[in-house]
C-alpha cells in the first residue's frame, strides 16, 4: 500500500481539474513531500492548473501555510486545499 | 439604424427622462422626511446627554447628535435583537455609533446594505459608479425594475431610506480610485469590500491598511464565494495572502463566468454579520478565510490564517508601499473593463454578421463552429453549427477536419461576443487549408444586425 494524501480543489482550481478532491500517492519510499515538489507534481497532473497555482493559497488540514516555507511537509493522511482568490461580486 | 428604430429610441429616451425626474422628486421627498425625523429625534432626547463615547466619524453638524441613548422608536423597532444575550442595548448603541462604507452596490453590497440598514447601523456610505441594468436584478436585490438606468448608489439609498429612515445613508456616485479613496474611507469605521474586480480589491486593501480600518472582504463567482476580514486583530492584509495580482486574462467576472444570485446573497449576508460583530466588539473567532461552495459538501470550510506576513510590502515590518498606487496598471485591468474586447485578428480574418448571413442564404458550403461552453450553446445556437468549446478545440482538430466536405471548405467561428472566436481562428489557421474567419461581435451582434429574435443573454 502506498502512502496517500488528499488534495481539495476550490473555485477555479476545481474548474481546471474537473474534480473536487483526489487522493495522491506520496513518492515511493518517502513519507512526505515539500510544498515546492507538491506544486511540481500538481502541475504535471493537471496542465490547466499551472497558471492558477501561481496565485493560489495552500492550506494543510485547513490551516494556511506559506507556499515558500521550506520547513512545511505534506505527510500521509494530510488534506491539502488549493484555494485560488475569487474576485467577482 | 432605420427610422422606426430611431423613433423607438427617442420614445424610450423621453420615457427614461420622465422616470428620472420622478425619481429625483422622490429622493427629495425622502430626504425631507429624514430631516424631519432627525430633528424630531433630537428634540426628543437632547436633554439626556452624558459622557458616553461618540464616534468621531460622524459629522456633528449634519448628523443626529442623539448617540448616547436609544429613542422610544428605536426600542420598539430593534426589540427582537435588543433582547439577545451578547447583543443587547450595548450592542445596539454601538451599532448606532458606527459608520460603515459599502464599496459596490451589486450582488454582495445589495444584501449587505439591506441587513445593515435594517439592523440599525448609524451611518452607511455606499459607493458605486454604475447604473442599474436589467441583468443586475437576478442578484442585486436592493434595486428593482423601476430603477433601471439610474445610479446604483442612489437606487440603494432609496431602498435603504424606505426600509429604515433612522439610518443615515450617503450615496457616492463615483468610481473609487487612488485620488478619492483615502478621503472617503477616513470618514468610516468599517469598510465592506463588495466590489467585482481585482484592481479595486488591492486599492481598498491598501487604503484600509494606511487608514487603519478593518476590511470585510467578500467575493463570489459561479457557485463559490469567500469571506475574510483583512487588517483586523493583527491578521494579514490582502497583499499578505496575494502579493501579486492574477494575470488579467485568467480572471473570470460575473458577466462571463456567471453567478447564482443566492450565492452572492449568502456572502453579502455574511459580510453584514461580520461587520456587525466587529462593530459590537463581539468577535472571538481567529482570523480565517471562509470558503463557500454551493456544489460541495460541506458547504462551508474555514481556513485558519496566520498573523500578518513579516515581509509584506504594505503591512509588514519594513513596508515599501506607503502610498496608493495606480491599481489599473498594477493589475493590468481595471474596474471599468468588464469584458475587454479582444483585437487579435486583422480585418482579413474576420467577417461581418450580415455578410455571413448572405453567405448562409446563398447556400455556400462551409462549416460553422460555435466555441462557447456547452451550457451556453444549449441556451441558444444557430442551426447547423457545431459546438466545440474553445478549451477543447486544440484536442479536437481532427473532428473539425472530418466535418469538412473538401480540405479547403471555409470554416467560420462564432462565440458570444466575438473574443473567444478570434483565439479559435488563431488555433485553427495552423491546421486548415481553407479560409478561417471569425464572426465579428459574435451572437450578440448577430442578434442586433441580423436576427432581432435571437436571444441576448
Ligand atoms: Zn500585508
Automatic annotation (TrEMBL), chain A:
The modification 1-thioglycine is found at residue 89. One of its GO terms (molecular function) is molybdopterin synthase activity. The keyword Lipid metabolism does not apply. C-terminal thiocarboxylation occurs in 2 steps, it is first acyl-adenylated (-COAMP) via the hesA/moeB/thiF part of UBA4, then thiocarboxylated (-COSH) via the rhodanese domain of UBA4. Gene3D superfamilies: 3.10.20.30. The modification Glycyl adenylate is found at residue 89. Keywords: Cytoplasm, Molybdenum cofactor biosynthesis, Nucleotide-binding, Phosphoprotein. GO terms for cellular component: molybdopterin adenylyltransferase complex; molybdopterin synthase complex. GO terms for biological process: Mo-molybdopterin cofactor biosynthetic process. SUPFAM superfamilies: MoaD/ThiS. It comes from the Eukaryota. Pathway: Cofactor biosynthesis; molybdopterin biosynthesis. It is found in: Cytoplasm. Heterotetramer; composed of 2 small (MOCS2A) and 2 large (MOCS2B) subunits. Belongs to the MoaD family. MOCS2A subfamily. Acts as a sulfur carrier required for molybdopterin biosynthesis. Component of the molybdopterin synthase complex that catalyzes the conversion of precursor Z into molybdopterin by mediating the incorporation of 2 sulfur atoms into precursor Z to generate a dithiolene group. In the complex, serves as sulfur donor by being thiocarboxylated (-COSH) at its C-terminus by UBA4. After interaction with MOCS2B, the sulfur is then transferred to precursor Z to form molybdopterin. This is Molybdopterin synthase sulfur carrier subunit.
TrEMBL record, chain B:
Residues 6-40 form a coiled coil. Zn(2+) binds at residues 237, 240, 312, 315. The active site is at residues 254, 415. ATP binds at residues 107, 128, 135-139, 152, 196-197. One of its GO terms (biological process) is protein urmylation. It is found in: Cytoplasm, Cytosol. Gene3D superfamilies: NAD(P)-binding Rossmann-like Domain, Rhodanese-like domain. GO terms for molecular function: adenylyltransferase activity; ATP binding; metal ion binding; thiosulfate-cyanide sulfurtransferase activity; URM1 activating enzyme activity. It holds the Pfam family ThiF. Its main location: cytoplasm. Pathway: tRNA modification; 5-methoxycarbonylmethyl-2-thiouridine-tRNA biosynthesis. Residues 362-455 form the Rhodanese domain. It comes from the Eukaryota. One of its GO terms (cellular component) is cytosol. The keyword Metal-binding applies. Keywords: ATP-binding, Coiled coil, Cytoplasm, Metal-binding, Multifunctional enzyme, Nucleotide-binding, Transferase, tRNA processing, Ubl conjugation pathway, Zinc. Binds 1 zinc ion per subunit. Its cofactor is Zn(2+). In the N-terminal section; belongs to the HesA/MoeB/ThiF family. UBA4 subfamily. NCBIfam families: PRK05690.1. This is Needs CLA4 to survive protein 3. It comes from Glomus cerebriforme. The gene is UBA4.
Amino acid at each position: 500500500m502506498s502512502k496517500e494524501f488528499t488534495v481539495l480543489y476550490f473555485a477555479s482550481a476545481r474548474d481546471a481539474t474537473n474534480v473536487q478532491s483526489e487522493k495522491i500517492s506520496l513518492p515511493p519510499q518517502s513519507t512526505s513531500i515539500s510544498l515546492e515538489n507538491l506544486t511540481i507534481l500538481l502541475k504535471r497532473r493537471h496542465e490547466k492548473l499551472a497558471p492558477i497555482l501561481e496565485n493560489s493559497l495552500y492550506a494543510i488540514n485547513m490551516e494556511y501555510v506559506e507556499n515558500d516555507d521550506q520547513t512545511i511537509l505534506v505527510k500521509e493522511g494530510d488534506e491539502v486545499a488549493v484555494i485560488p482568490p475569487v474576485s467577482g461580486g | 439604424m432605420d427610422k422606426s428604430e430611431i423613433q423607438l429610441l427617442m420614445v424610450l429616451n423621453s420615457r427614461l427622462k420622465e422616470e428620472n425626474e420622478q425619481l429625483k422628486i422622490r429622493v427629495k421627498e425622502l430626504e425631507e422626511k429624514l430631516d424631519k425625523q432627525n430633528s424630531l429625534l433630537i428634540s426628543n432626547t437632547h436633554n439626556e446627554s452624558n459622557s458616553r463615547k461618540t464616534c468621531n466619524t460622524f459629522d456633528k453638524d449634519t448628523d443626529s447628535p442623539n448617540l448616547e441613548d436609544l429613542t422610544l422608536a428605536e426600542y420598539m423597532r430593534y426589540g427582537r435583537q435588543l433582547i439577545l444575550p451578547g447583543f443587547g442595548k450595548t450592542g445596539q448603541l454601538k451599532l448606532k455609533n458606527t459608520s460603515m462604507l459599502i464599496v459596490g452596490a451589486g450582488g454582495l453590497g445589495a444584501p449587505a446594505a439591506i441587513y445593515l440598514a435594517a439592523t440599525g447601523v448609524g451611518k452607511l456610505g455606499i459607493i458605486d459608479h454604475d447604473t442599474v441594468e436589467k441583468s443586475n436584478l437576478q442578484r442585486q436585490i436592493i434595486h428593482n425594475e423601476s430603477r433601471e438606468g439610474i445610479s446604483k448608489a442612489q437606487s440603494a439609498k432609496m431602498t435603504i431610506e424606505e426600509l429604515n429612515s433612522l439610518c443615515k445613508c450617503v450615496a457616492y456616485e463615483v468610481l473609487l480610485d487612488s485620488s478619492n479613496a483615502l478621503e472617503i474611507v477616513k470618514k468610516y469605521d468599517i469598510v465592506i469590500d463588495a466590489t467585482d474586480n481585482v484592481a479595486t480589491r488591492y486599492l481598498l486593501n491598501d487604503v484600509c491598511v494606511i487608514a487603519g480600518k478593518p476590511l470585510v472582504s467578500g467575493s463570489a463567482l459561479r457557485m463559490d464565494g469567500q469571506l475574510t476580514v483583512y487588517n483586523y486583530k493583527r491578521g494579514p492584509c490582502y497583499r499578505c495572502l496575494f502579493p501579486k495580482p492574477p494575470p488579467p486574462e485568467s480572471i473570470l467576472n460575473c458577466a462571463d463566468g456567471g453567478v447564482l444570485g443566492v450565492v452572492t446573497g449568502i456572502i453579502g449576508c455574511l459580510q453584514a454579520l461580520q461587520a456587525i460583530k466587529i462593530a459590537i466588539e463581539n468577535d472571538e473567532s481567529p482570523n480565517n478565510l471562509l470558503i463557500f461552495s454551493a456544489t460541495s459538501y460541506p458547504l462551508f470550510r474555514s481556513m485558519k490564517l496566520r498573523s500578518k506576513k513579516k515581509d509584506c510590502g504594505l503591512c509588514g515590518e519594513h513596508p515599501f508601499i506607503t502610498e496608493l498606487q495606480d491599481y489599473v496598471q498594477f493589475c493590468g485591468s481595471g474596474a471599468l473593463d468588464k469584458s475587454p474586447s479582444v483585437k487579435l485578428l486583422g480585418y482579413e480574418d474576420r467577417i461581418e454578421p450580415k455578410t455571413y448571413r448572405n453567405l448562409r442564404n446563398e447556400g455556400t458550403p462551409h462549416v460553422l463552429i460555435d466555441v462557447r461552453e456547452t451550457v451556453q450553446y444549449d441556451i441558444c445556437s444557430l442551426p447547423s453549427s457545431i459546438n466545440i468549446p474553445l478549451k477543447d478545440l486544440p484536442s479536437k482538430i481532427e473532428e473539425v477536419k472530418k466535418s469538412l466536405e473538401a480540405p479547403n471548405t471555409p470554416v467560420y467561428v462564432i462565440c458570444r461576443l466575438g473574443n473567444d472566436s478570434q483565439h479559435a481562428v488563431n488555433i485553427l489557421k495552423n491546421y486548415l487549408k481553407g479560409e478561417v474567419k471569425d464572426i465579428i461581435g459574435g451572437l450578440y451582434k448577430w442578434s442586433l444586425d441580423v436576427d432581432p429574435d435571437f436571444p441576448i443573454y
